[in-house]
Amino acid sequence: MEIKELFNIFGLKTDRKEKIKKFRIDSRKIQRGDFFVPVKGSKTDGHLFIQDALRRGASGFFSQKKYEHPSVIHVKSTIEALIKVGKYKRKKLSVCIGITGTSGKTTTKELLNFVLSDFFNTYSTEGNLNNEIGHPLTLANITEDAEVGIFELGAGKIGDIRYLASISNPEIRVLTSVGHGHTEKFGSFENVIKGKGEIFEGGEVGILPVNLKKYYGIHKKITFGFSEEADIKISDTKITETGTSGIITVKGKNYPVNVPVYNLSVLYNLGAVFGVLDYLGINPEKVVDRLKEFSLPEGRGKIIKHKNLTIVDDTYNANPLSVENAVRTVSQLKGKKIIVLGDMLELGKFSEKLHRETGKLIANSDIDIAIFYGKYMRYAYEETKKFKESYYYENKEKIADFLLSQREKITVLIKGSRGMKMEDIVHIVVGD
Prior knowledge:
This protein is about 30% helix and about 20% strand. It is α/β, with parallel strands linked by helices and about 425 residues long. It has 3 domains: about 5-75, 3-Layer(aba) Sandwich (Udp-n-acetylmuramoylalanyl-d-glutamate--2,6- Diaminopimelate Ligase, Chain: A, domain 1), CATH 3.40.1390.10; about 85-295, Mur-like, catalytic domain (UDP-N-acetylmuramoyl-L-alanine:D-glutamate ligase, 3-Layer(aba) Sandwich), CATH 3.40.1190.10; about 300-430, Alpha-Beta Complex (Protein-Tyrosine Phosphatase, Chain A). Helix 13 (about 375-385) links the parallel strand 17 and strand 18 (about 390-395). The protein is globular.
């Protein structure tokens, strides 16, 4: 986008034709040619850093305050201005895909971006920029050649998904899962179901787990899951030495798939992906072989080999649904297995109950050793220690020391909520 085009959006004139490289809200990340969007937050006001952004080479900036500068665009709200740009850029896409869910959003987004990039110029959410600021920022930075956009929509309360979907207006709307995530903010599990379902208030098609269709009245839908009634059926899932394998059945035809990731739910996420492929009329045979080359970003199930340890770095986040999947995944691995878990946050009044349920799940699993960290994981430890070799630590260095003291070949899965920063353990172990 040229500066001139941006000025035109706001009814302004300029002769400047230089390209805007990227819209940014953090002045510290400004590079020459970027456009600065100062945001007023609870802790600071981005307007205080306009001069810093200009020194770093910003080509222009929005401002809610009077500012004498040839590169300024005065607006009532910098966020609303960003949304306006995002909506303008989104209209240039041929197809927009919106994804929400308690867990699996990022993996599904990454899978879709990976397979669809063979057929289209794709653009997707960077990192976890999926909230009321991150989503319009993502849209504003849609690349000029993009044909298909793949976006995560995050939610912490009722109304969030409706609001975000109203900005990007996706034609294809995907719900990956519903579980006890952000229950504290939503108020109840029923509200989680309701809030996530806001994704289906519009669009051309809804793609969702077959067991959730009873909650939502969707005119055009594609379901996925393990039952026979699913449009996209998943079966024979198992963990192998090379990753996760299974069979996905579409319109009566079986497609054996293998993904180089230790994560049983990746097949569930693929069910959603195959639903999108089906709607777009893409033959699944064209993507099956490509899946063998797929890899996840750091913290999302990435496999790290270090001496005698095979570390599954799943540290980015955790909720009861994703932890249950992690336990089932590790249980299927051969050899000695250790799981390291940090607290699952934002569960409110359900915290003790759900952590105890996690402990009981581990107690009945094929995991050899369980290690717990955090005040809520003490409840899980209490349920596990009677039946399984278990340890509770208040210090991440001691957890790392324990793992490094092991001499035989071991697979270690490390997971916890974002606020627990369980990646610290990975970094200590591998010496980053």
